[in-house]
Amino acid sequence: MTAESGASLLLVGCGKMGGAMLDGWLAAGTASRVVVVDRAGLPQSLAGDARVTLASGADSLPDGFVPDVIVLAVKPQVMEDALPSYRSLVRPGTVFLSIAAGKTIAYFERLLGEGAVVVRSMPNTPAAIGRGMTVAVPNSRVSAAQRDLSDRLLRAVGDVAWVEDEGLLDPVTAVSGSGPAYVFFLVEAMARAGEAAGLPADLALRLARATVSGAGALLDASPQEASDLRKAVTSPNGTTQAALEVLMADDGLQPVMTAAIAAAARRSRELAG
């Protein structure tokens, strides 16, 4: 692979996450050729794209096709059956990049062989609209160039952070992997509270959705810390301060969130074990 030609990729699984990544790679020119393995076939939007080829499995790849990266985007529960057929593609020049939750580097090395070059990553669902957060960890065989390529592929769907300690992926899963669900629940809770305060249900939900999405956009666009933005909209003795005195009390939101993150991290360790 050269910087000018882009990478040769094998995408195993082209669901929402895999499809979003594929769209990003093609738009950015990161991939010069992609072979997709997916029972459902290619998205209609890619029909006729000469850069993309559909294969039925590892035994039907194009002759002479040697991928730079094999992106594993199938559901974790089918990984055990799907992965062994790709063992023949293990080589120093090919990195296996997993976006499957809960599957460890040791798991991939067991199914692929100890010579496998593996990057384990944990994206979250906003990646489907290019606004994801992914944390990745390489095994010891990943070269600097392979790490750089993996980073560029993951950045097709959002921001990327790298860690060297794989154990950190459990709290990562708890904070960012599961985190979108916490935000969605916040919208539900705000809407129900609005109803309890007298708002019509549809207006309460509309206000909650717009407020959370707007505040997130403001946070993303601002160089200020979240705490600074909070203080900027909190007038002394005003309505926001009255609400925050409840949310920031010793028995308020922080201990509940801390317990929730701990529970999710604990479950992540259980699933990986």
Q: Strand-and-helix sequence, N→C? A: EHEEEHEHEEHEHHHHHH
Strand adjacency order, main sheet: 3-2-1-4-5-6-7-8
Number of strands: 8
Give the termini separation.
36 Å
CATH architecture of the largest domain: 3-Layer(aba) Sandwich
**Residue share in β-strands:** 15-25%
Range of helix content:
40-55%
From the alpha-carbon coordinates, what is the Rg to the nearest angstrom? 22 Å
Number of domain modules: 2
Q: On the 0-100 scale, what is the average pLDDT?
A: 92
Number of H- or I-type helical stretches: 10
The CATH topology of the largest domain: Rossmann fold
Largest sheet, described in full?
Answer: 8 strands, mixed
Coarse structural class: alpha/beta
CATH C-level label of the largest domain: Alpha Beta
Structural commentary:
With 273 residues, this protein is an alpha/beta fold. It has 2 domains: 160 residues, 3-Layer(aba) Sandwich (Rossmann fold); 96 residues, ProC C-terminal domain-like (ProC C-terminal domain-like fold), CATH 1.10.3730. It is built from 10 helices and 8 strands. An 8-stranded mixed β-sheet has the order 3-2-1-4-5-6-7-8, sandwiched between helices. Strand 7, helix 4 and strand 8 form a beta-alpha-beta unit. Helix 5 packs across helix 10 and helix 6 crosses helix 7. The radius of gyration is 22 Å and the shape is elongated. The two termini are 36 Å apart. The model has no long low-confidence stretch (mean pLDDT 92).
